Recover the amino acids of this structure.
């Protein structure tokens, strides 16, 4: 509890996040935000009104005890603050950077009614960075091993958080990952300038220290099936956390020209395969220098792709979005950063066709303007094209960031695993049980593309449910 | 990491590898492939599994050195590890018992077609095999293909072997002499596959081709391998690699495969001038494998591996 009066607390301004200058950072892949200083973090923590019924905790998908960890920062006990945070959030250095705080904790913060909300994301990032940089690892108390084995499929935030919780309860956990490096979207999707890979790798190292085994290069459904995991491989439970990794396309003419990428491909080539360092790394990517790169979409993925294009030297980086800027689903901070860096926004516009030259290389995009139409069933207004409003945008590279769907690999190879109409795995929202005994599922493969924090929450609920299941007398016997 | 147990040259620039990959060997079915990343700075390339021994836990790959990564791979020797091997990917070939099937392999396509030919033969199908190369010294797997077929026809573009020059010339003869062909499977350069499709289309002969689209992940995540079949988009890695030859948009495939031509050439030039730059990464992972032999048996990501 700090000694300032509510009035004094409210007189303190929200600390602003130190960042690389826009004209500098748009040419490098280093992290944009530099993190609060100790002094700033302290000042920011003092702003908390310490509500009796904190709405921030309710606004958090995993119920982080914001008031408590912020009070520990104000009291100067940063490691205790980090430990408090970790009680509810196992990946705080990551979520502090990528959560849409404006819709969650900070959106609910009472300060935000009249003033700027408490910088909860900044503080979360601050304490977890402090903890990592000071080489302290919150080590779990050693629990006796249970002799039970759990297989986790996919190493994104859902899989990682489930792995951590299960290992801490004494179960033997193996995480299977299709790619050559674990981390899911945190590694192949979200770029370095927003989430340094070193942070993700440090979290994975933490899990290894807890005894979690990682087996990369295993595509469940192809290399090994779910039935084999539960059979010959000897696991007593399986948690499917394979994400929503299937890219979508518009289905318009010319979308398969060379130079048209899905965001997944474009970002994977850069983040996972390091094509930005070609030829030191072998992976090629279209040369963006002196060229126009147009990204279609308005979410975080679109922002990541368009800002990556700038960093690859694009002469012009355009964002084409079918609705207005305020309706973009991306985090506010990303939209603002993109603007500052020089991304041009072409809103209320959709591509009608991609036009190539005789070698099949993209040369321009035919677009049409849109306007709001009547609301759809969910109440969100539809968009409709405006007649005779076509125009052409010259572009050599286009990236489609239109959202993703469910990859059918596992569903197709696992008999009697129920899915919903869109192909996502059907699982109970609380217990995460599926139609198959001993098989649980959570994260984007159940909800569709969502957020890191919601995937992490699902992973933690799954771990609790699997733990309970393993201790049940009628659970699968060992081996 | 995945140990090369044995390798040998089959022809100039074409090498056969036996690699320890027990999980892949267990699951392999003809027509499937793996994705390989040679070292930590490498790209991911697809290679067909030519054969597998589930008991020994090994798979066989046959690699034609056409560019940087395949030439790098062909410099590797027995006892060296490959960074990443993932699979088996893609759909297996359908190995029904057909009446007569013509299996056509052009260049390294012969290696890709071989396991399917053998599988068909074992299923009781009459297999006519046609294999072709630019010149006699580049012919591969002739003995294997002879053993996997009732009739083998060999073609050379330059006529260095007696007989037809193009695989389509040979196919023309076979179509005349065989009373009924139930299926043609063609694997090779895009131009060859298109020519075969054009020949069989008017006769309504079911024809399949294995498409060599550029791939990244091989799991359906990136869409880079997309091909167009009639009016439908398909991902070659998960929906293929075999498709109905009469539906494929070959122009699009050829254009997409050319997309990185300049960079590929730059990569190759650099590699040929400074092979040591790459071999140092290979040497590094050899040392890692020596220090942690367990990572070869159980191909987990080794400790402290991702240091970039
Ligand atoms: C570019 C981009 C930017 C984003 N930005 C944000 C952001 O700023 N804030 C935010 O909250 N959210 C963001 N998201 C969304 C967020 O990343 C996802 O909601 C979250 O990662 C989902 O976690 P997951 O664990 O369910 O799956 P994923 O992170 O998708 O991980 C799934 C893993 O499973 C592996 N896998 C798939 N199939 C198999 C198989 N058959 N066998 C073995 N392994 C398999 C995949 O390779 C992958 O590694 C972003 C997403 C993208 C693509
Ligand atoms: C399903 C499938 C199975 C294959 N099986 C075999 C095989 O058994 N043996 C064999 O020798 N080759 C096989 N190939 C082809 C092999 O993958 C390419 O020759 C290899 O990727 C070339 O890489 P490079 O760096 O040596 O040459 P580069 O100079 O980089 O490329 C040469 C050509 O190969 C193609 N290519 C380049 N990168 C990729 C990539 N990431 N994925 C796919 N194609 C690419 C392009 O068309 C390019 O023009 C297969 C391809 C596919 C799609
Ligand atoms: S290789 Fe990425 S989807 Fe096929």
């Amino acid at each position: 509890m700090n000694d300032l009066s509510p009035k004094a607390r409210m007189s303190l301004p929200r600390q602003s996040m130190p960042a690389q200058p826009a004209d500098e950072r748009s040419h490098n892949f280093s992290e944009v935000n530099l993190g609060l200083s100790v002094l700033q973090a302290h000042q920011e923590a003092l702003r908390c009104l310490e509500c009796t019924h904190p709405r921030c905790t309710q606004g958090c998908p995993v119920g982080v005890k914001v008031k408590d960890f912020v009070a520990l920062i104000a009291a100067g006990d940063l490691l205790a603050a980090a430990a408090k945070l970790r009680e509810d959030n196992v990946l705080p250095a990551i979520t502090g950077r990528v959560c849409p705080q404006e819709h969650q904790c900070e959106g609910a913060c009472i300060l935000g009614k009249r003033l700027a909300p408490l910088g909860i994301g900044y503080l979360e990032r601050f304490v977890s960075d402090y903890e990592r940089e000071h080489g302290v690892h919150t080590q779990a108390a050693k629990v006796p091993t249970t002799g039970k084995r759990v297989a986790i499929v996919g190493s994104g935030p859902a899989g990682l958080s489930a792995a951590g919780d299960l290992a801490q309860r004494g179960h033997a956990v193996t995480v299977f990952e299709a790619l050559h490096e674990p981390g899911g979207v945190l590694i192949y999707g979200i770029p370095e300038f927003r989430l340094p890979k070193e942070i993700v790798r440090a979290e994975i190292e933490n899990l290894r220290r807890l005894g979690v085994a990682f087996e990369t290069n295993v595509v469940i459904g192809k290399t090994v099936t779910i039935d084999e995991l539960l059979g010959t491989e000897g696991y007593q439970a399986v948690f499917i956390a394979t994400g929503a990794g299937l890219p979508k396309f518009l289905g318009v003419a010319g979308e398969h020209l060379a130079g048209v990428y899905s965001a997944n491909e474009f970002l994977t080539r850069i983040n996972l395969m390091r094509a930005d360092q070609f030829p030191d790394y072998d992976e090629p990517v279209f040369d963006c220098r002196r060229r126009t790169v147009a990204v279609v979409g308005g979410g975080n993925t679109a922002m990541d792709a368009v800002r990556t294009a700038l960093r690859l030297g694009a002469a012009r980086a355009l964002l084409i979005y079918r609705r207005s800027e305020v309706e973009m689903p991306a985090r506010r901070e990303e939209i603002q950063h993109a603007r500052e860096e020089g991304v041009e926004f072409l809103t209320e516009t959709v591509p009608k066709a991609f036009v190539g030259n005789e070698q099949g290389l993209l040369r321009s995009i035919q677009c049409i303007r849109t306007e709001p139409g009547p609301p759809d069933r969910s109440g969100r207004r539809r968009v409709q094209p405006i007649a005779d409003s076509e125009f052409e945008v010259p572009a050599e590279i286009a990236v489609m960031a239109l959202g993703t769907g469910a990859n059918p690999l596992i569903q197709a190879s696992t008999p009697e695993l129920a899915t919903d109409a869109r192909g996502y795995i059907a699982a109970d929202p609380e217990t995460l049980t599926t139609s198959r005994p001993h098989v649980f599922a959570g994260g984007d493969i159940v909800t569709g593309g969502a957020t890191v924090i919601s995937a992490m929450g699902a992973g933690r609920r799954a771990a609790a449910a699997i733990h309970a299941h393993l201790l049940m007398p009628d659970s699968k016997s060992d081996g | 990491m995945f140990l090369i147990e044995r390798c040998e040259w089959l022809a100039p620039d074409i090498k056969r590898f036996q690699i320890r990959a027990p999980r892949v060997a267990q699951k392999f079915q003809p027509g499937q492939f793996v994705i390989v990343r040679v070292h930590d700075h490498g790209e991911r390339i697809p290679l067909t599994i030519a054969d597998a021994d589930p008991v020994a836990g090994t798979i066989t790959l046959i690699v034609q050195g056409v560019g940087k990564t395949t030439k790098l791979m062909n410099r590797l020797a027995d006892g060296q590890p490959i960074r990443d091997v993932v699979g088996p990917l893609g759909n297996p070939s359908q190995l029904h018992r057909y009446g007569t099937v013509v299996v056509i392999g052009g260049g390294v396509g012969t290696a890709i077609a071989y396991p399917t030919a053998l599988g068909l033969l074992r299923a009781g199908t009459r297999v006519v095999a046609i294999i072709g190369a630019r010149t006699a010294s580049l012919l591969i797997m002739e003995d294997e293909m002879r053993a996997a077929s009732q009739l083998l026809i060999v073609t050379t573009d330059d006529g260095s072997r007696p007989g037809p020059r193009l695989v389509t010339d040979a196919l023309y003869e076979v179509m005349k002499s065989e009373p009924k062909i139930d299926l043609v499977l063609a694997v090779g350069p895009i131009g060859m596959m298109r020519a075969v499709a054009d020949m069989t289309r008017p006769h309504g002969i079911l024809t399949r081709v294995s498409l060599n689209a550029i791939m990244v992940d091989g799991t359906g995540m990136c869409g880079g391998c997309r091909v167009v079949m009639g009016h439908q988009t398909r991902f070659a890695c998960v929906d293929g690699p075999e498709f109905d030859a009469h539906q494929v948009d070959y122009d699009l495939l050829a254009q997409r495969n050319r997309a990185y031509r300049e960079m590929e050439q730059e990569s190759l030039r650099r590699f040929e001038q400074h092979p040591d730059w790459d071999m140092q990464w290979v040497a590094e992972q050899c040392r890692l494998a020596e220090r942690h032999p367990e990572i070869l048996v159980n191909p987990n990501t080794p400790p402290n591996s991702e240091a970039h």
